[in-house]
Model the fold of this input.
Amino acid sequence: MSRVFLASRNAKKLAEMERILRDHLPAVEVLGLDDVTPYDEPVEDQPTFEGNALLKARAGLAATGLPSLADDSGLCVDALNGMPGVLSARWAGPPKSDARNNELLLNQLADVPDDRRGAHFTCAVAFCHPTAGELVVEGRMPGHVIRETRGTGGFGYDVLFVADGDDDRTSAELSVEEKDAISHRGKALREIAPVVADVLTGL
Done:
C-alpha cells in the first residue's frame, strides 16, 4: 500500500483525491491532516493559488516525511476583477463560513446584470516528493454566478455557480461523478494523478 499525504481536513477533498489516484494506483492510501501528528500549518499568505498550494505541500512533506499534495482553489469573478480569488475561503472574514461568504458575494453582485456575472473556479495542486522534486498543475472550470443558492452537494460557492454548458444546474446539484468530470479540482487532480502514481511506484 502506497501512502501519500494531502494537506487537508476536508473529507470530500480527501475522498476525491483517493478516488482519482486509485484509477492509476489501486493500492494507495491518502492521509489527511487528522491522520498525522499535528504540526504548525503555514499561513496561506501567497498572492497566487500556486504559491499557497506549494507552501502547504512543502510544509506537509517537511512535517510528515511523506510524499505530499496540497491544493488551493477559489472563485474568480469577472465583475470583481478576479476576486475573491485566493481569499475565497475567508471572503467574509473570520471565522470561515460558506454561508456568510455566499451571502456577501450575492450582495456584491446584486446590481450586476446576468450577462456580466461570468466567473471561473481555479484549482492549483502541488506535489512535493523528497527525491522527485516539486510539480504544480492548474485546472479551471468556467461558468457564471446565479442569484440564489441551489443544491446540497459540494461546498463553498458550489451552491451559486453554474458551469458553462451544464443545463443551469449548480455545482452543488451535480452528482459526485458529474462534478469530478468537469470541476477545476477534478481536472487538476486527473492531470497530476498519473505523475504521482509513477513517482510512488518508482517508474
User: Anything to note?
Assistant: The radius of gyration is 17 Å. The chain has a mean pLDDT of 94. The CA atoms of residues 145 and 161 lie 5 Å apart. The chain is about 30% helix and 25% strand.
